[in-house]
Amino acid sequence: MNLTLGFMVWVIISSLLPFIKEDIIIPANQLALVTALPVVLGSILRIPIGYYANQFGARIIFLISFIALLFPVYFISVADSYTDLLIGGLFLGIGGAVFSVGVTSLPKYYPKDRHGFINGIYGAGNLGTALSAFGAPFFAAKLGWSTTIQLYLVILAVFILANFFFGDKHEVKVKTPLVKQIKAVYKNEKLWLLCLFYFITFGSFVAFTIYLPNFLVANFGLEKVDAGMRTAGFIVLATGMRTVGGWLADRFNPLVLLMFVFGGFTFSAALLSFAPSIAWYTFGCLTIAFCAGTGNGVIFKLVPMYFQQQAGIVNGIVSAMGGLGGFFPPLLLTFLFGLTGHYAIGFMALSQVALASLILIIWMYYQDKVGFANQVIKNTVEGIMITDKRGKIISVNQAFTQITGYLEQDVLGKNPSVLKSGKQAPSFYQDLWKSIDQKGFWQGEIWNKRKDGQLYLEWLTISAIKNDAGDIVQYAGMFSDISDHRMNQFI
Q: Are residues 332 and 397 in the same domain?
């Protein structure tokens, strides 16, 4: 509910812009700036708010945020100039910034296998934008836009009291310094990829939310209340799919889900670039709502998966980039419309960025599979040694070091003969390689020598690794020390 209120306040101006511009003169080329400006502070503040939510708990941060919102809301309700709207709108961004509070605090209360669903339910607070998009024009038509905005002051006061009396005073606090958390994550490419993905998914949600009311009136000649209802429909679908996306991410591979999300983005944005009729435009927008909502839920399943210890600061950074994703598109669309007289290039740009993101997600998917395989190799209890096809060692794992005494730097580039004990006759090795050539592997007992000169008996499997053309590219040896086992047989 706190997020719902924050988002309700965040989009006051865009929801009521068709009414406000009847009383306040706003230059036509500045309409997008008025609606987009609240996104700026709402994006930037998400980083410190995510961090301080860990430091002080959700109760304190929500209290401070809602008290701070009282001032810009009242200021806008009595605004009589374009400048007043810009100043007040900037500080409305606090309402959007509170998103970082819940995604940081809620996972503390639930097991990891439910984080996607829980963050999805919290993210359903996006519904606050729909409540404002639909409800604010309805009340403004009866009471006037100024009085309608002042009603938000009453709601804010109720939530301030509710958080003060009922907020959790005993939430677990995380005291890791901000600079230390940033240093731990800023070089991780996954952070910036998640930022890009959320820039598109949440950015599209915000951009369409703040742009649609005025766009539908100006471009299709719809009534203001009708435009508000259509915008509310977009928001409701995106919000509902956020919860579904989180739930799906708990059950299926999140990266595979994102492939479908950005495939849908690519198609629907390309459709909108052809300036279709209102029916096809509605279909394209609703497809974007479906994909944006699903993607938003999936991405915040990935954050705690990749960044367990720095979830607060990473949630802040990723959500900040998502907010900025809602700031730039309306300005870009307005600029391109001024140059070309239509919005086709802007929507096509969204399509191409989504396509690039799809390619990056496919790359992440296969990188994760390789990374998982490397972790298995690194942590298995059997010693593993990999050579190139010429027999030069290119990789060993930790178990190799524990068994043989050789560090990785001791053996890289050398031949496995460094381990040779001298106990096997040359014919033994001839038969070994003959088996590998004919069968693709050899398995059996072999005496080898540790770094300190001690002999040991190992059970060894050597496999030839081939490429798609059937050519051998590497050899992999997996072995375990069976000296003690053999000695026990004789006792």
A: no
Confidence band of 486 (pLDDT split at 50, 70, 90): low
CATH assignment of the domain containing 282: 1.20.1250.20
Range of the domain at 296: 2-377
Q: In what order do the strands lie in the sheet with 472-481?
A: 393-396, 383-388, 472-481, 455-466, 441-449
Q: Are 181 and 310 in contact (CB under 8 A)?
A: yes
Instruction: Say what the pLDDT of residue 107 is.
Output: 73
Residue 168 · residue 31 · CB < 8 Å: no
Residue of 194, 242, 185 lying closest to 357 (CA atoms): 194
Q: 411 and 369 in one domain?
A: no
Same domain? For 361 and 479 the reply is no
Dist CA 227 CA 367 (whole Å):
44
CA distance 245 to 238: 10
Q: How far apart are CA 49 and CA 72, in angstroms?
A: 19
- In terms of domains, do 432 and 373 share one? no
With 0-12 / 13-18 / 19 or more C-beta atoms within 10 angstroms meaning exposed / middle / buried, residue 379 is exposed
Looking at the fold, whether 68 and 17 belong to one and the same domain comes out as yes
* Among candidate residues 377, 403, 418, the one where a domain is terminated: 377
Cα–Cα distance measured from residue 84 to residue 15, given in angstroms and rounded to the nearest whole number: 17
Give me the mean pLDDT over the 97-119 stretch: 77
Per-residue pLDDT, averaged over 355-363, amounts to 91
Is residue 88 within 8 Å of residue 76, measured between CB atoms?
yes
